[in-house]
Specification:
The complex is a heterodimer of chains A (244) and B (268). Chain A is an alpha/beta fold and 244 residues long. Helices cover 36% and strands 26% of the residues of chain A. Chain A has 9 helices and 10 strands. In chain A, strands 6-7-8-3-9-10 form a 6-stranded mixed beta sheet, sandwiched between helices. Chain A is globular, with a radius of gyration of 18 Å. The chains are: A alpha/beta (244), B mainly alpha (268). At the A-B interface, α2 and α3 of A face α3 and α4 of B.
Chain lengths: 244, 268
């Protein structure tokens, strides 16, 4: 079964074509890494998947439902099947870290308050933040915020996890820990869609890769296929940061 | 370089069109809030939390301003009524002025500055830090969760804060009167309430529900449409105060007319 499918998706912001006729398909349980330089439409692609942005043309299917036609509760229902780690974590700064993680559980489950606290604590422990439950997001470092954001994204154990730049701004050790956590999540059957320009990190996490450039899909395939690509920009990208 | 008339007209025209677009978008935002407020889920916990926050944020300001306004109004009323030897009417005159107009309007303007700015800045900051997107991605209707709850909460809090303003104003008036004439507490309030009826208190207090709606709709709209980072957040906050205050003053003209239609002023 397909987790996510893009069919000829195009999106413009004013005069700027952010996505131009982009198509791809991600089978369930795979880790799909979307690579490319900054400002090439990677994050916008993720936003299309979760329905935060609607395409000007084309269709986006999530678990075989066209998310571009959904609104209200139907859209909300599909969104509960996805977790989203934002580039800057986007933690709710009026809540404690624990409440951030517990928030999706409170909204979408009938679990008791005790159960929710226990599960949120477990999720925080999974990302190495077991002592941060009662801290406010402002008291966390950038790396800790990202880990807390990941815990929140995984709060409901969604079958699809969208991750925007998981290692950006992190020290190499924390970045490696996050990569390992994502690999572990994938092993549990979760479909991962990871936007990154960190090639070594993508090599660890990914099964399938695509390179976006100026809103177009420059290359799509396995690691070996991309490594063997004759496209100069793909070559430059795959060999960057000790990647090749 | 001199401005060509045609380009000046173009600019004025563009500004007018922008204004219409803004008013239209604001009206649609407010109408949507009205519809969403009566559709489940009702978010009672969020609404209660905001009522508490708005109340605790504004109460010290309202109480302090109320007492000060009461003192000032009392001094002005005394200066006017003394000429006619009608000092005994000071408490009643002050109470009517406070309850009918000064209390609701001043409370509205103060809440616009205190709470409106806060709503604009808070939602604006959530917008620029992607917290609103995070709410949506978590399958939560951000409009309902952030805007509608605040709008309903301020519609509940506003009349309560107005009553607080009315009574603190009366207390301020009593302090001023007691200092000048040594009038007792019981006599002051007996005289103050002699001429006050429910038709003075209830419509004037209820109209502040509209003030609460307008302040929160304007601030929420400006928060939701924030862009350009922290600069945009500051602008949303400032514009929330300006817009909220302007809407209160303009709507007051209409609301007073409506109140007078249903409760004509009694003369003599």
């Amino acid at each position: 079964m397909t987790a996510v499918r893009f069919e000829r998706v195009s999106k413009r912001f004013g005069a700027l074509a952010v996505l131009d006729d982009v198509s791809f398909e991600i089978p369930q349980g795979q880790a799909f890494c979307l690579l490319g330089r900054s400002g090439t439409g990677k994050s916008v692609t993720l936003r299309h998947i979760v329905g935060l942005v609607r395409p000007d043309s084309g269709k986006v299917f999530v678990e075989d439902q066209d998310i571009t036609t959904l609104t209200g509760r139907a859209l909300g229902e599909v969104r509960t099947h996805m977790g989203f780690l934002f580039q800057n974590a986007a933690l709710f700064d009026s809540m404690t870290v624990g409440d951030n993680v517990a928030f999706p559980m409170r909204r979408h489950t009938k679990w008791s308050a005790g159960d929710i606290r226990e599960r949120a604590t477990k999720k925080l422990a999974d990302v190495g933040l077991e002592t941060a439950y009662d801290k406010m997001p402002a008291d966390l470092s950038g790396g800790m915020k990202k880990r807390a954001g990941l815990a929140r994204a995984m709060a409901l154990d969604p079958p699809i996890l969208l991750v925007d730049e998981p290692s950006a701004g992190l020290d190499p050790i924390t970045a490696k820990e996050i990569d390992e956590l994502l690999v572990e999540t994938k092993r549990g059957g979760t479909t991962l869609i990871v936007v990154t320009h960190n090639i070594p990190s993508a090599r660890v996490i990914g099964d399938d890769f695509a390179v976006l450039h100026d809103g177009r899909m420059l290359a799509h395939g396995t690691l070996q296929e991309l490594d063997a690509s004759s496209e100069p920009l793909v070559q430059a990208f795959m060999r960057s940061q000790g990647g090749g | 370089m001199p401005i060509r008339p045609s380009s000046a007209i173009d600019r004025v025209g563009a500004s007018v069109l922008d204004l219409f677009a803004f008013v239209g978008a604001l009206a649609l935002f407010g109408a949507r809030a009205g519809v969403e407020a009566v559709r489940p889920p009702y978010e009672p916990r969020e609404i209660a939390r905001h009522v508490y926050q708005f109340g605790t944020r504004s109460a010290p300001l309202i109480l302090t301003a109320g007492v000060a306004i009461g003192v000032v109004l009392s001094m002005h009323t005394r200066a006017s009524l003394e000429r006619f030897g009608a000092e005994a009417m000071i408490p009643a005159g002050l109470a009517i002025a406070l309850i009918r107009e000064t209390g609701p309007l001043t409370a509205g303007l103060l809440v616009s500055g205190r709470v409106g700015a806060g709503i604009g800045a808070e939602i604006g900051a959530m917008k620029v830090t992607e917290q609103i997107d995070a709410l949506e991605a978590t399958a939560v209707d951000a409009f309902k969760y952030l805007a509608v709850t605040r709008i309903v909460a301020l519609m509940i809090a506003m009349p309560l804060l107005t009553l607080m303003m009315d009574f603190s104003g009366m207390f301020g008036g009593y302090l001023a009167e007691a200092a000048v004439s040594g009038m007792s507490w019981s006599l002051y309030f007996e005289r103050a309430f002699t001429y006050i009826t429910y038709s003075d208190l209830i419509p004037a207090t209820i109209k502040t529900i509209v003030f609460g709606y307008l302040i929160a709709v304007a601030a929420s709209y400006l928060g939701f449409t924030t862009s350009r980072g922290t600069e945009g957040v500051g602008e949303a906050s400032t514009r929330s105060v300006v817009m909220g205050s302007m809407l209160i003053i303009l709507s007051d003209v209409v609301l007073v007319k409506i109140i007078f239609f249903f409760y004509p002023p009694v003369s003599g």
